[in-house]
Design brief:
about 425 residues; alpha+beta; BirA Bifunctional Protein, domain 2; 2 domains; three-stranded mixed β-sheet; 13 helices; about 20% strand; elongated; RNA-binding; aminoacyl-trna synthetase; protein biosynthesis
Length: about 425
Amino acid sequence: MLDMELIRKDREAVATALAKRLDPAEVNRALDEIQRLDQERRALISEIDAERQRRKAEARAYAQAKRAGTTPEPAPEAERKQLAELESQLDEVQSRLRTAMSELPNLPADDVVAGGKEANRVVRTFGEPPAIEKVRDHVELSRALGLVDHERGVKLGGSGFWMYTGMGARLEWALVNWLIEQNIQAGYEFLLPPHLLLDSAGFAAGQFPKFYDDVYHLDKQSAPRGQFLLPTAETAILGAFQDEILETAKLPLKAFAYTPCYRREAAGSHSDERGTVRGHQFNKVEIFQFTLPEQAGAALEAMVAHVEGLVEQLGLHHQTSLLAAGDASAAMKKTLDVEVWMPSTGKYKEVSSISWGGDYQARRAAIRYREPGNKQTRFVHTLNGSALATSRLFPAILEHFQQPDGSVLVPEVLRDKLGADRLTPIR
RNA sequence: GGUGGCGUGUCCGAGUGGCCUAAGGAGCACGCCUCGAAAGCGUGUGAGGGUUUACGCCCUCCGCGGGUUCAAAUCCCGCCGCCACCGCCA
């Protein structure tokens, strides 16, 4: 949610920033509508407040007269209706205003350019693509090594699901555990949240209404409150602090969570999204920070560096890109993707998206802090990022460290956890 | 899931229709006192919104949502949460 006051005071700046993401004509139409509703809203509030004030005075006078022994006559029926009428008008206007406001995306940061994927810019590259003679892709490797059972996964959950087996399950779990340890070391508090969330959490994170149909909803019979399966732990961590005023001294508040993520995802399989690269359920460890506005810039840099360090420790060749406005998620001001090299496709694939949300999510979720020496509450800034999604790391590790004899070397940092240095073909 | 009890401000806690514009206490902040502190005394102490150049003024909020009434923390209905007991428990 954007700041209404900013729209009132500097509509031009808002329109210019939004034009990086949306058609300018559309922006103007939306802003016109919002300003009209805003004015209507304020006029109605003034009217209602004045009417209420009058009524309170009347009720007080009535009580006094009664105490004095006289029987005053109540206010005419007509006025009662008028107030109810105004109030329902206000409800209507406010709900339309809220809808219009909640449909506006965040303002991209100054250094974020307009455009889609093609305008993304690589800002850093780490290492070189590994030299591999005959590249086998991760699907082939995971089958040969007995790590992932796609057929039985589909048998259980339908298309878009897989099952990790044997050393594959152990590798996946070693990765998750290693990531958890790394994030604890980096000063994040470990959370294990519910996987079923109420709609208010989805709205606060800015995922609803836009992505409402992209998550799994429980039917009304089994979940009268309409919970959905979380598509990312970001939704849970943000939602956990909804409507709170955070202690200023505790900021930045750093938390992370491990959860499976459930997404409907458009069906259909691209050649570079085979195997575990894209599915309806995957494991992810998500880091999150609530900060003072002035801490956000440094926090974003620290988070990106932390994530880059994780990929680096796994020994994977990767790059970091600054996303253009149109390719970043709507709730964010600025997003950097860390992309890992996939030898089989010769492309980089996103393993983490790290974003600065400004106060956009905090405004939707009403998460505030109190300014020191000032009674005023203000909205915190939110930042989030994957650290990391294992479903992308897993195939990258297989492909990077495949050996001519068909085995795969295990990244050093995982060897103790896995209890093996090398994965070998099962037949 | 059932039955019963409970839900008031930062916390404890009073309040069963009208000076509730929410008592009292604790905590916290500031001031007085003090060489300094404690104690004592005094003042202040929530959120959201409207209006105003500003000081300020006003509205809403007693778990949430409706209703009754000239008037609701208080009465009625629904929901949510907590506690206790019972039931269920792959």
